[in-house]
Amino acid sequence: xxxxxxxxxxxxxxxxxxxxxxxxxxxxxxxxxxxxxxxxxxxxxxxxxxxxxxxxxxxxxxxxxxxxxxxxxxxxxxxxxxxxxxxxxxxxxxxxxxxxxxxxxxxxxxxxxxxxxxxxxxxxxxxxxxxxxxxxxxxxxxxxxxxxxxxxxxxxxxxxxxxxxxxxxxxxxxxxxxxxxxxxxxxxxxxxxxxxxxxxxxxxxxxxxxxxxxxxxxxxxxxxxxxxxxxxxxxxxxxxxxxxxxxx
Length: 248
What we know:
Largest sheet: 8 strands, parallel, barrel
Helix content: 40-55%
Strand content: 15-25%
Structural class: alpha/beta
Number of strands: 10
Shape: globular
CATH topology: TIM Barrel
CATH superfamily: Divalent-metal-dependent TIM barrel enzymes
CATH class: Alpha Beta
Number of domains: 1
CATH architecture: Alpha-Beta Barrel
Strand order of the largest sheet: 1-2-3-4-5-6-7-10
């Protein structure tokens, strides 16, 4: 199992601190938010010039959009960028509302993302769908329909612990065991009273979560996905310490 970290940054100084310190703070890679890589999207050489000395700085790119023409174009550009900067995983958030969608809509989306996933795979990148509160693949039954229509294993699943709880799925370990064959990335996020929290400061018991991850033989990236608004250094140190406690 490899450890990654992800957190939005508000300033250039925060971005520099994130990239320059993630390894010394115990993480193997970063899963960058859109605002952190989009300024470089059409100039990957500049990203390499700025951050190429920090292996794993763009281990994953998180992209959120619809699958209209503009969204497809953005994903094409993101895949091309990722291929130049060493990205392993493209984490996709499907930014359309779940309400009103039918099973056929989910199957159609699965076919579209399968084609994008094959293109990404040709570029050396895995496409991973982030299940998300309020988005098309939110519940277990959504995932059953969606992944039943994915072709050639072209799309994996990013499991986000807090989004599961926010969606009403309390048994995270059961969800992990159920979808283990398609899970290729984890976002560990805590939650309390509907608000995201730093790992260990919310309501989620991560002991059973990590037990299920180990039980299923997962050996890919597990990312502390920090969106609580806590300070960068505190979040990185606290998340790494908490992961160390529950994985002992």
